[in-house]
Amino acid sequence: MTALLIKNALVVTLDDAGTILPKGEILVEGSKIAAVGPSVKVPAGAQIVDAEGRVVVPGLINAHHHLYSSFARGFAPPGEPARNFVEILERMWWKLDLALDPEAVRYSSYVALLEAIHTGCTTIIDHHASPSCTDGSLDIMEETFRQAGLSGCLCYETSDRNVPADGVAENTRFIKKTQAAGDGQVTALFGLHAQMTLSDATLEATARVCTETKAGVHIHVAEDLSDETDCIAKHGSRIIQRLHQFGLTGKKSLFIHGIHLDESEMDLVAETGTMMVHNPESNMNNAVGTQKMLTLLKKGVLLGLGTDGMTSHMISAARVAHLLQRATLADPRVAFVEACDMLLNKNAQICARCFPEKRGQLVPGQLADVAIFDYVPTTPLEPGRYLGHLLYGLNYARVHTTIARGQVLMRDSKILTLDEQAICAKAREAAQGVWKRF
Ligand SMILES: [Zn+2]
């Protein structure tokens, strides 16, 4: 088994005791952490990574992403600016995803994975849409994750908006494929766009597959008020109750946003143990409202953090989550610890339900997902003080080295697993093609 030693590290273990080692070592064997301490026993021939006093933390997790969104950078759809969320979907996202071809799926994915590695993110739960090339699109993305070296939980955004039940077959096939492979690097959920573009027949088909495969769903819920009013008008029910009727709530399912959930829906999410993800930057950008993040947490909902395709920068997502709650509630006492806990702990707990291997702490037995930040603390970085350094120090720091599943993916900000220059050049070409077809 290959061994790797990280030495001279200021190790933020995030273990249950909050241990911080001012000068520590981490031994990695294969894809897992074998030992952590001030000094560990090193097998002969181990690869050495000298952290040179830098801050070493567990790899970050993005609990909701759309990698294809990376091709929206610098693009403005023609015509008048969208005035509301439905217009944003119709004028921008549903045209952009329709313009993706297999090459664009591949390169938009690579671009986002490069950014994830550069920002110390080692696991991504993605929600993909490319209706012009649905079948096989998840295999293309899987290849990019494996080449990059990151862990991914993938799904296809099933919707009736272009073709009825588009995505059901792709999700079903890919869930079965990853379950049969069973290596844990790439797993799958059953992707659904949002209830407003899903018929009862498609939800029934989804439920059948989820029962058969024991997979959960990954779906946007109540991102905008229009999703709730649509559900009430067409189905005489609120969103969570509608999904619950089809058996799509539960511990394996991941519900995104939930900004306009009422008390009864939040209670049902909590009672069923359904996971949720907050994406504050995206919500602010789309002007859809502010999630009742603290209420959901108080009700015991497992609530993580994502970027919803806006960026791949997870510390920024936590920082904005904390600031947005304070601004919205006009209360300077709230949301700092909660936002950090969502990023560091809740996202790891969500992953524990989506992947076979544990991650999120630098402790023996967990996945060797590690980010080494080029960061020299200018105030004491001791147990109990990490969160301030995270949101107001590491947030601006360069990531020097990223290790995932025991493999060094980037050293001195140079990516080793992918040819960054070549990918960026090809991505610019592919993006231009998408914009022309838009
Ligand atoms: Zn999303």
Keywords for this structure?
globular; 438 residues; TIM Barrel; binds zinc ion; five-stranded parallel β-sheet; 18 strands; nine-stranded mixed β-sheet; Urease, subunit C, domain 1; alpha/beta
Structure, explained:
α2 packs parallel to α3 (137-148) and α7 packs parallel to α8 (263-272). The chain folds into two domains: 3-59 and 359-413, Urease, subunit C, domain 1 (Roll); 60-354, Metal-dependent hydrolases (TIM Barrel). With 438 residues, the protein is of the alpha/beta class. The strands form three sheets. Strands 1, 2, 3, 4, 5, 15, 16, 17 and 18 form a nine-stranded mixed β-sheet that branches. The protein is built from 14 helices and 18 strands. The model has no long low-confidence stretch (mean pLDDT 98). Zinc ion binds at residues 64, 66, 127, 220, 256, 308.
- Give the full name of the CATH homologous superfamily of the largest domain: Metal-dependent hydrolases
Low-confidence stretches: none
Bound molecules: zinc ion
Q: How much is the radius of gyration in Å? A: 21 Å
Count of discrete structural domains: 2
CATH architecture of the largest domain: Alpha-Beta Barrel
Total strands:
18
Q: What do the pLDDT scores average to?
A: 98
Q: Under CATH, the topology of the largest domain is which?
A: TIM Barrel
Shape assignment = globular
The helix count comes to 14
Instruction: Give the biggest beta sheet.
Output: 9 strands, mixed
- What is the class of the largest domain in the CATH system? Alpha Beta
Gap between N and C termini: 49 Å
